[in-house]
Design a protein that fits this description.
By secondary structure, the chain is mostly helical. The chain has one domain. Helix 1 crosses helix 2.
């Protein structure tokens, strides 16, 4: 269940500008509608890529960073 919730948050950050703005202004409020435990909340609020990797969501790390920071320039 947690994996699906974290994945849903990342997907929504990528596709819903209003949610992304709310997340950046008040992450606790934005994440309150998702069933996330303390570790998952902390990972999403701090950008803990290791936690995502341990959940099996390592492939979502780039999507998460891009949603919040924009695409990274290539080498």
């Amino acid at each position: 269940m947690a994996v699906e919730q974290v994945s849903a948050v990342i997907d929504r950050l990528r596709t819903d500008n209003g949610f992304r703005v709310q997340y950046c202004a008040d992450p606790d409020e934005a994440l309150s509608r998702y069933a996330l435990d303390g570790d998952d909340l902390r990972a999403l609020k701090t950008g803990d890529g290791l936690h995502l990797e341990l959940m099996g969501l390592g492939q979502k790390w780039d999507q998460f960073v891009e949603a919040l920071c924009g695409p990274h320039p290539g080498p």
